[in-house]
From TrEMBL:
Organism encoding this protein: Algivirga pacifica
SUPFAM superfamilies: HMA, heavy metal-associated domain
Protein name (Swiss-Prot/TrEMBL): HMA domain-containing protein
Gene3D superfamilies: 3.30.70.100
Residue ranges of domain HMA in the record: 1-68
Length: 71
């Protein structure tokens, strides 16, 4: 399993609701969460070994949010 972390502008429950379908439709993503209390709004994604950062970033950007690799 791979784990990625990203900084985003997903900052509230409505934002999470908007991005949920996009992340849930990615078959290689097993679980994900957004720490909206963190100033950098950290998105943590766990997925199959085939999952790439580009897949996650494309899914989030598709629904209009900013995302960049953490670290």
């Amino acid at each position: 399993m791979k784990t990625y972390q990203f900084h985003t502008n997903i900052n509230c429950g409505n934002c999470i609701a908007k991005v949920t379908p996009a992340l849930n439709e990615e078959f290689d993503i097993l679980e994900w969460s957004v720490d909206t209390d963190n100033p950098k709004k950290v998105l943590t994604v766990k997925g199959e070994d085939e999952l790439t950062e580009a897949q996650v970033m494309a899914a989030v950007e598709k629904v209009g949010f900013k995302i960049e690799k953490a670290g």
